[in-house]
Amino acid sequence: AHPHMDCSSSHAVAHNGIIENHLELKQELLTRHTFTSATDTEVIVHLIAQSRMATLHERIVDALSHVQGSYSLLIITEEELIAARDPNGFRPLSIAEFDGAYVVASETCAFDLINAVYLGDVEPGEMVIVSKDGMTRERYAPVRDHGDPRPRSRAGPAGGCRDRRGTLPRTAARRPLGREGPARHGRHPDHVRGRAVPQPHP
Length: 202
Prior knowledge:
single chain, alpha+beta, three-stranded antiparallel β-sheet
């Protein structure tokens, strides 16, 4: 069950999607890492851990450069919430504001349940970083023009719980950022809580 913690318990990872090459990556990682589950999500945790890049953001980008598939990704540390969407854009991921904090979910009806204010989507190939200083956005990979006839998913504004194909995507993380401290399990495997992040004022 999600989320998965890294070996040092410095960050937790949850993801909605399919890592198509996770078995290949796992075979390479098993020489240096111990896996505690059979989920493809844990591959991302170990890829981040073994990266030699200087910052966590750079290690995430490095890890995702090895991943093939469709995914919405959420990483929580004691200081930040980081949301990323695959360059194909097949998995939806959206952001809202709730009670002075940011909320991330793969279906906007989750925002409706808590009366959160929908702010927009995480774009394909984009990483959104939330900290005590507010929210920043950066593109970590170009949008892929792969010629696949399937439309890119979009969670849409309030009430738009279905993506463009009419399917019901699973929630990647649909609880507001908590005030208790570091990342931990919520009441549901897909619920993740982090630190409180105040809404910046202009």
